[in-house]
Amino acid sequence: MSIQEVVEAVRARFGEALQEVIEFRGETTLVVRRESLVELCRFLRDAPACRFNFLSDLCAVDYWPDRPRFAVNYHLYSLPHNLRLRVKVFLEEEDPVVPTVTGIWPTANWHEREVYDLFGIRFEGHPDLRRILLPEDWEGHPLRRDHPLVVEPVQFSFNWREIDSRKPYVKE
Amino acid sequence: MAIREGEVQEFTLEQLKHLVSERALRGETILLNMGPQHPSTHGVLRLLVELDGETIVSIVPDIGYLHTGIEKHCESKTYTKIIPLTDRIDYLSPMSNNLAYVMAVEKLMGVEVPLRAQYIRVILTELQRIASHLVWLGTHALDIAAMSVFLYCFREREMILDIFEMVSGQRMMVSYFRVGGLWRDVPEGFEDAVRAFLKLMPSRINEYERLLKRNPLWLRRTKGVGVISPEDAIAWGVTGPSLRGSGVNYDVRKAQPYSSYDHFEFDVPLGENGDVYDRFMVRIEEMRQSLRIIDQALRRLPKGPYITPDRKVTPPPKEELAWSMEALIHHFKFWTEGFSPPPGEVYHAVESPRGEFGVYINSDGSPKPRRVHFRAPSFVNLQALPIMAKGCLVADLVAIIGSIDIVLGEIDR
Which residue of A has its CA nearest to B234? Predict the structure, then answer.
């Protein structure tokens, strides 16, 4: 079983919904429409030609300022066939919602929570969509490209007083 | 709900009602907080444990106390400067993290690594595996009240750290691998030090095994505890010794060999029952297999360059800077601007001591990556903890946490 046969099987089954197949450095990426993501994932897991029963990783990318802005990557691995495959879904900035795959691979649970926490992409139908790494009252989603990298200014003798006055702790 | 500094965030039952059983809502079971400051959670892991008497009904893990934003930092650094950050993800196996990251960049750049560098990488990552397993064994045994093993394990780990210090100048945060090869060739005396370790270690592993394997206390604490079926383990994405303890034969080194792992003979030890004891036996056996790999790699260690001559990813040799203007300019540009891979994305996975450690890099063609993501095995393995611990006693929870060998630096990144 080779990755070409998997791509052919998916193309035959999904046709239009499969937007693009990218080959780069020996890795295959299937770009799919959001509407058929869950169906495609179920097909990839269950079809005898695919059997991608192991979700290695799930992560998001922010293409800001390009459009469409977000992408969610699913890194799949097939234990029976020893193949790797990446499934990719692009999302618009105004509508960062994607259906959950926790029903197919339970391991997606925390991965999706992490993406929600750090990118603000919502997963429809997720059983427990809370922030996972950051505290509940954190504002913003830090892994977005337009979120600033917070820099703490270095305190020297000439600006000690000014920086110290902005620090939150109680002064004597 | 605003949380002040130094406070632990409190959960309300309203927030967690979909995660705990209905009996907790009626007040029939107890919700117990464990951690984040707890000696046997191996870092700042917090668990909310629902108990019926002493039996665990459900667990809600709460992580993020050690979140350092490494992935965000990577976006503002050149590809070379990310290497030291990868040390800090899983601070017990920096070599494996370095390897995964530099191999992902090499894949992105299309760089060939000299055979000598590949072999040295194998030797060092396998030493790292042993060092990491020794910390695991020591702390795991300490959790279940076997004090002496801890002292022995740290004695042998010191030998490995000395070897790391010899090659990289650092004991823990090594940053020794570079894109295209290594930072320096290994120094004189390296091979002798590794040989001395290889000679000593097999008898020491037997010693640890003898201390625990047939110890009745150890058996009662580990046999049949924290069982996870192979189907569950795959569905929950468990990797590494925790997966192989359940009898699933998946080791990235065998399945998709990298860095010439296919040149060496080694077995993948498998468990049968998927309990704490099997995971313990798998790791003990893995240490022996690592010794086998190191021995073969050391015997066949080829001569040759330690880093690729491709000037795209390597700075020019120091002596060239004295007479070549171009080399000086290149040196300056390399360290200030960095190199620019072609636009695209790659995912590369290696077998770290804890499981599949993957690095995803998305490049936009500039010298800084658009996105770097680390697939941390501990993060995924911890997700399976509630399944393993369901129905066990609360005292077993300590043994189960120890058996999945988590590193919080990697979970929170």
Answer: A54
